[in-house]
Amino acid sequence: MTKDNPYNFLPLQPTGRNETDNVNTYAPEDMIKIYEQQFLTQVPEDQLTEFLPALKRFYDIDNNTLDISAVIFDAIADSTIIYNHKVKTGNYQIVGSLVTEQIEVEEDEESQESLDNQAYTIDCMRTFFINDVEIPYHFNLFVQGDGYSTLTEKNTALEKIYWLVNAGFEEHLLGDPKELASLESINEELASLGIREMDLNTIHQLVNYIEDNLIDDEMAEALNTLIDDAE
Question: What is the C-alpha separation between 42 and 150, in angstroms, rounded?
Fold first, then answer.
């Protein structure tokens, strides 16, 4: 008999039954798919209370199964769920050449200290995936000693989202606040990419994720190599 599937859940093959034989068990990779569908399936507002029971009924699982799927997702998935969006970090690219910045130092400072104070800038790009849609994120990286800062461009949807969250003091210094994209215009652009709209809470969490994953160990090593070669 065909299962009722009004939400187009993915067909998954159980691995068996649990010890008490009251629910199905699934492979870890399928548990991740179940967890993702719990948040990523678009459900009409008037059906929200019906959705979770339908999910559990379709896969013949219970709340404990959903709790376990969350643990498995956190442990082995290469993405994260931010409200109703799956977000994943893509590849990086060093777009431009390393530029040596002229930093003023006192004449009586040691040459080694001057070298430690040397600063560099370089244009970089990191891609991110939102619900499997790849979006580039361009930024200029400023490096001095052990510290660094970034200046994000304002062209792609993710870059506009960053500036919507971080506008204020920086924007008044670096540009015209009137040039900022609105939440409405950003959601229109996301819709054109096939991505469901975001509220302000989602956007703030997304920017936190971007900042945490912008420069990974592999990218830092490549940048350090460039700087070492320049010195």
Answer: 35
